[in-house]
Write a structure and sequence with these properties.
Oligomer: single chain
Number of domains: 1
Order of helices and strands: HEHHEEH
Number of helices: 4
Largest sheet: 3 strands, antiparallel
Structural class: alpha+beta
Radius of gyration: 16 Å
Helix content: 40-55%
CATH class: Mainly Alpha
Shape: globular
CATH topology: Arc Repressor Mutant, subunit A
Length: 114
Amino acid sequence: MKRVAKERVELLQGTLDLLVLRTLQVGAQHGHGIANAIKATSDEVLSVETGSLYPALHRLEKKGLLKASWKVTESGQRAKYYQLTAAGKKQLTKEVSKWETIVDAIGKILQPAT
């Protein structure tokens, strides 16, 4: 069976925060793990570059939506682990609601009722 290469898709502005918050809903993770989880969960369609991910993590931490602590990874390396705060969980709920509204609106434009 021939495997078709998937085309990578650029993230819409503002969606990275949503993806990070949603990924961390499962539990604390370090930056590389977050990027890998987004890639794996999206069937390798979405790829987050470190140049975008780490500024987003720092921004979310500064807003109080994430908290970070240093831990040792399974491979024995020190890494900063991020986890959702209570404010981050609330923000995730708001962001999901906004995203669903946008998806619905775009769907109506792409598939107009006849």
